[in-house]
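Why show two proteins at once? Because comparison is the fastest way to build intuition. When a single record is shown, students tend to memorize it. When two are placed side by side, the eye starts asking what differs. So, the first record is below.
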Amino acid sequence: MIAIVDYDAGNLKSVQKALEYIGETPKVTRKPAEILSADKIILPGVGAFGDSMKKLNSYGLCEAVKESISRGTPFLGICLGLQLLFEESDESPGVSGLSILKGKICAMDHDGVHKIPHMGWNSLSFPKQSALFKGIDEGSYVYFVHSYYLKAEDENIVTATAEYTNHIHAAVECGNVFACQFHPEKSGDVGLKILKNFASLGESNVY
């Protein structure tokens, strides 16, 4: 069972429907016990960093997420779900993220040319191989909606990048933890393939 973590953030239904479309039977839940018993976990989200961390804490989900990851359960963060995995964000100064991965979420530069928030299709480059992007071509387009972007401390975990006012660390992979700034559930066939890759992860190809 794939658990979709419910912490009152947006976009849960879109992720659920995309997974059902590819033949999965996900469960939207905020029960720590169900998250801990899941075969895989997805932390989606559209919203504010600080408010979302407050809600994760209030529902007792931070520890469930951290324990599941420590057990080796495959985990996918999407958009805000990627950002929350890191230590801090310019959006909410003084608020600590889950700090599962090291890095900072930075405000995108206003260059007078590009619109902020970044809303639309953008191509990906793949600096290294990732199980999440198996069968995905270099330069494939995916859908972004964000005003903040990741700067990972360790660039060795970065598996996809994009360019839009800044050099964006668009996806990461570290052990059983995967995350992407873009929305695979809104990215057509490419996005569905990415979700299929995650759903099909087994112990032999999580690294």
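Second record. Ask yourself what differs from the first in the token line.
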Amino acid sequence: MSSHHIVRDAQEPALLIAETNISLETIGQLLEWSPIVVVLEHCLEEVLAWNIKIDKVIGSENNQTKMWELTAHQQPLEIVVLKDELLKDQIDFAISHLIAQEISALSLVIPAALLPSDFVHYLPNIVLIFFETEWKGYFVPQGIFKKWTTAGTLFQIEAGHTISQLIGLEEVGNNIFEVSATGLISFEVAETIFLKEKMV
């Protein structure tokens, strides 16, 4: 992937990289619309090896000299220094920072140890889409969910939650549903749930 210097549109989803265990193909897809790219310090060296343009780095004050040295060739970029080194706090800061900049959607790559539900309280202010190598996930609010998708696509819902009024979906495993035919699918949920979708 080549470096890119493109004027960003704040309406495009930003990208927060807090974990590097993801395929470069997926990262490439997320970069297609030239989002604002935010990287946490513990991922910085590996992300730089991907040869992509970074816009912001968030890290602890103990490592600010190293962050500046590593990103010298990427200037201009913004380095945000925090006193807190806890990963969850750095991610929380990043999300709040982007909301303050009126970013309306954010793609996140986070460690498996952190759960999307840890971030559900941001929902009124920003759309969050979580990415793994094979899956993407997002919150579905109470009510009827509709989406056009292709036959064979798999969806997985959180354990302990149920969906009803299924149209175009068949349950094929424990909380796993398959799209029966290309077209519009829909279902109803009684509360906000986290839905994972298998990426082709």
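One difference worth noting in the second protein: The longest strand covers residues 143-149.
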